[in-house]
Amino acid sequence: MDNASPSNMGVDYVVTFSFTAAKDKDEAVKQFEKLITTLDGIGMRTEVRDGSDGKLLVFVRVRSAQKLIGEVYRSRVKDWLHGVRPAAPDTETQRSLDKEHLTEAERFRIIHAMLTLPTSEGGAGITPGKGQWSLVEGIFPLHDHEFNKEWMKTWSTKWTLGLDELGDIRDRFGEKIAFYFAFLQSYFSFLGIAACIGAGAYFILPQYSLTFAVLNCLWSVVFVESWKRQEVDLAVRWNVRNVSQLQSKRARFQPESEQKDPVTGEIVKFFPAWKRLVRQSLQIPFALGASGILCILYAVTFAIEVMISEVYTGPFKSVLVFTPTVILTVMVPLITGTLSNIATKLTDFENYENESSYEAAMTQKVFIFNFICSYVPLFLTAFVYVPFGSTIVPHLDIMGFMAPADGVDADGVAAQQAVFEINPDRLRKQMIYFTVTAQAVNLAMETIVPYFKRAALTKAKEFQQKRSGKYSPINDSPQEAKFLSRVRHEAELSVYNVTDDLREMCMQFGYLCLFSPIWPLAPVSFLVNNWIELRSDAAKICIEMRRPVPHRADSIGPWLDNLGFLTWMGSVSSAVLVYLFSGEANEVGGFTAAGLLASVVFSEHVYFGVRLLVRIALSKLDSPGLVKEKQERFLIRRRYLQESMGVDEETEANEKEVVPRDTANVATGEERSFWDQQEGAKGAIEAGLSIIREEKKEQ
């Protein structure tokens, strides 16, 4: 069985407790004592050290191997009952974990469930920052730095990632993160095809080519459908098929009553479905309001930008041209931050029973913000500015920068103001910015900026403490100093959220679906960016973020539906772009509403037809995952049949008795020294309270 990293003193999880955040000392003491006794009650051993800055580091590990073995067995039985595992786990699992491999991710996942699941499901019910655990800041496992170094070294020498590399991620960080990297690898591979098509179209075909638009839409459909198939194969390979149906209650779920389950007969906590539906209906006005606010902001900013850059010729133009950028830089984060807070509160108000439902609801709200912020500028340029700019812009000229049509003013004096002319190259320049410049900036903001920002904040904090005379280095024992310094550093890192990276890739895919006819070289730019992204995301997890808690998943979740929506939207958008801008017959002003509507309806029907054909074609191909699943079920049925007839080949071949091994407590002398300093919950409480008292004296 994989155990915690040898360099981590046998620690499973670290709980950060901020006693200075309490209103008074008694509150901090009571909550800390409750934390330690609760951990002790679920079979955890604890050690406490000073975390500096008014925080305690509570180190947690499972007290005995048999406790962990029991939890693993119960988890696997639950998987079998819900159809995740094809057969019941071997009864030997109750005695030893050597018979069936236990990955580090499964170990951490089960222990995290013990810490966070509601008490009604056998957990401690610890919810950081909420209710009775308001002083608990976070719960996180420690990085295995030896694995991290080897991981980044291996990836730096590979062009593509195979199933073995993805399996290593799954074993260390869980299936949810492994599915993200598998998606990114698959997307990167398909981008190679899109890049070849785009480069050929750029150098051979005319601009806004119908041929390229059709090939690009076909590529997007094939990619999404093939990824759905690949998800199934990976889910079977990683034994998480249908795991999305196995949902634990959220600790923050607030039931309204208790009722008898009509299926099981058990008394369960209940929240009326009709009441949740009523609360969910608030999403409609919220979505409309959020969309309206963001669209108005972008439309006003766009109008200002057009007037300043293409009409205004007065003084300070070189400075005023940055006005729209300043407006968006200030207002967009402010508005989206406010809307995100509202979305979070609205999703909390909807009161979902499980995490997957909560995450799906929140993801769809966030997708609306990102869709508008990412694509509205290009929509305005393509479908408003270029076709109708000559008609609309003169009505926006409230400052009188433009000359009248006859070139003279009201007094008959020759006008010297600027005359507006549509810039046909504006759309292509915008597309290049979003697919090249913005991608590079975003990559730097993700990887480089956080590193220097954290280093600067650390130095500034130390300088301020020394200046105020409050700086006092912690006197750790020499055997623990290096380890505790690393833990304090990891405790200050941000929490990794794989949803943010999935959102980024989904929005990038949208540019290809919606606007590729504008600049066919966009997939070439994304191909280069994503090769770097694969490695920078790995480095971000290892260096810039806390080690993620491993969660299971059988797909990329709600983002798969968003990818499908973007492919459909892309078929419509591409048809409109080709109709408006390709050929002499469709010059600006030369289109009709009937022709535009016909192109949209035709392309949409072609899209649905192509998607159906692609699904049928893929269904004819053998799926390794489904074949493996059928094989497993066949072997299980054959085994049960043989056992019923008195033949048990597996038992005869494995009569040797399995010797239990206390793998959870295999420790080096250094680890034993660390864990033996405080005996039981009482010792941990005394150690924590002594640190709190010393801190209060210094203050």
TrEMBL record:
GO terms for cellular component: cortical endoplasmic reticulum; membrane. InterPro entries: Anoctamin, Anoctamin_N_fung, Anoctamin_TM. One of its GO terms (molecular function) is chloride channel activity. Pfam families: Anoctamin, Anoctamin_N. The chain crosses the membrane at residues 177-204, 284-304, 316-335, 366-386, 431-452, 562-582, 588-610. Residues 647-681 are annotated as: Disordered. Residues 169-631 form the Anoctamin transmembrane domain. The keyword Transmembrane helix applies. It comes from the Eukaryota. It is a multi-pass membrane protein. Keywords: Membrane, Transmembrane, Transmembrane helix. Its main location: membrane. It is found in: Membrane. Residues 10-136 form the Anoctamin alpha-beta plait domain. This is Similar to Uncharacterized protein C691.05c acc. no. O13621. It comes from Pyronema omphalodes (strain CBS 100304). The lineage of its organism: Eukaryota, Fungi, Dikarya, Ascomycota, Pezizomycotina.
